[in-house]
Write a structure and sequence with these properties.
The chain is mostly beta strands. The longest helix is centred in the first third of the chain and has 12 residues, at 90-101.
């Protein structure tokens, strides 16, 4: 499941799609229809995907997508069943194509459908504070609490036995049972994805959602961005301290403990039982294994294998760090 909320206005004929997005292509494609855009792993034969880095060559060689936006020097990794569309800037091209399929995903204006919870069907089933607003297409389970000045915008699902604090904003988010969202969190907004331009920066559409699994706690003032072409996921029984930022497409495992002011760049994966000390930073497109411990203030810029303790910048094996800093 990607985003069940944004409307897909496809399918598009492949030639028309390339024409709409000003993509020059030397191949003569058939009148194939493209029904959706997706990442390399989740794409089906009806989808168009993208491949922009050799780091994803294994995924590229196994993709089921019928078409792929890629670079000339990467095209040989793709299977013969996947037709290559070679461009100079893969991500910028995908931004244009994704916008054609999901034109409303590029904007994150406030939800003008939201109204006071006392005027909705939730007034009898939810215990709520003052000035709580709820948008359309919202579902809330049993025994939930919602604090003062909180806005649950359209397209949010909240499970049972959840506590949503005061001054919280939720959108494009699915929250499972027994989750605590503390005061001041913003969850489900679009991520920090754009292409710098001297005249006008080009935004990348974010069509994913945020999924927070059972028994999680999200600390005060934390922000979790929805995914771009995949979902941002928080695993079961994971606890975030205050002022943690999780960028788009991150996958956080089960039973993780993340201390205050930790920041994650986009598209990294954390294993299970990971512990991260305060003010550490994790760069994008990395894989952190299971049972990893990362010391406070560390900067993670490389993959970390299972059962490893690291510290410092760049983060290195704890024994090496202590030896170098005696």
């Amino acid at each position: 499941m990607l985003n069940p909320f944004f409307k897909n206005v496809g399918p598009f004929n492949i030639e028309k799609l390339l024409h709409l997005t000003d993509i020059e292509n030397k191949e003569n494609f058939k009148n194939d229809k493209i029904y959706n855009v997706s990442d390399l792993v989740n794409a089906t034969k009806k989808d168009l995907t993208f491949f922009h880095s050799k780091n994803y060559s294994t995924f590229a060689s196994n993709t089921k997508a019928s078409y792929c936006i890629t670079l000339d020097n990467l095209s040989h990794f793709l299977p013969t069943s996947c037709k290559k569309i070679v461009v100079k800037n893969v991500l910028l091209t995908m931004a244009k194509i994704t916008k054609e399929f999901y034109p409303k995903s590029i904007v994150d204006d406030f939800d003008d459908s939201a109204k006071d919870i006392s005027k909705t069907s939730f007034k009898k089933k939810v215990k709520f504070g003052k000035n709580v607003l709820v948008g359309k297409n919202v579902k809330i389970g049993k025994n939930c609490l919602v604090g003062h000045n909180t806005i649950i915008e359209k397209n949010v699902v909240i499970g049972s036995n959840c506590s949503i604090g005061s001054n919280v904003i939720l959108r494009n988010t699915i929250i499972k049972d027994n989750v605590n969202i503390l005061d001041g969190c913003v969850i489900g907004k679009k991520g920090f994805g754009f292409f710098p331009n001297n005249k006008k920066n080009v935004r990348y559409p974010h069509i994913g959602i945020v999924i927070i699994n059972e028994h999680c706690e999200i600390g005060c003032g934390s922000t979790i961005d929805r995914g771009s072409l995949s979902n941002t996921i928080i695993g079961k029984n994971t606890y975030l301290d205050n002022q943690v930022h999780i960028a788009h497409n991150n996958k956080i495992g089960d039973n993780c403990i993340i201390a205050g002011q930790v920041g994650f760049a986009g598209s990294s994966t954390l294993g299970n039982n990971v512990m991260i000390g305060g003010q550490a930073g994790v760069s994008g497109h990395l894989k952190v294994g299971n049972n990893v411990q990362i010391g406070g203030g560390s900067g993670v810029i490389n993959d970390i294998p299972d059962n490893t303790k690291v510290m410092g910048y760049p983060a290195k094996n704890l024994r090496e760090f202590l030896k170098a800093n005696r």
